[in-house]
Amino acid sequence: MAEFDIDAMVNRYAERAAAVKDRPFPPVAGSERQRFIEQAETDFTDYSLIAGAKWSVEDDHLVLRIPLGGRSDSR
Q1: Is the pTM of this model over 0.85?
Q2: Could you tell me the pLDDT band of residue 71, with boundaries at 50, 70 and 90?
Q3: 4 closest CA partner among 70, 73, 61, 59
Q4: Does 71 or 33 have the greater pLDDT score?
Q5: How do the domains of the chain map onto residue ranges?
Q6: 74 in the Ramachandran plot: left (φ > 0), alpha (ψ -120 to 50) or beta?
Q7: Neighbours of 16 (CB within 10 A)
Q8: Which of 1, 2, 27, 42 holds its CA 20 to 30 A away from the CA of 75?
Q9: CA–CA dist 36, 27 (Å, integer)
């Protein structure tokens, strides 16, 4: 089994976020277009959160620390 490269995984999520942001809208209208836009927004948010995470390995678990905006304390 190949070694797991966490930094490479995080970078792939950053690339996916950029790809979603730059994705052209298909030629659909009405409710299908709105669903496409909503899914693109969700995909971008998900990929961006992982791409911005700090990671560590604790007790044989990959831990992603994702900063949540608007919080001044660190827990």
Answers
A1: no
A2: low
A3: 61
A4: 33
A5: 6-23+30-65
A6: beta
A7: 17
A8: 42
A9: 11
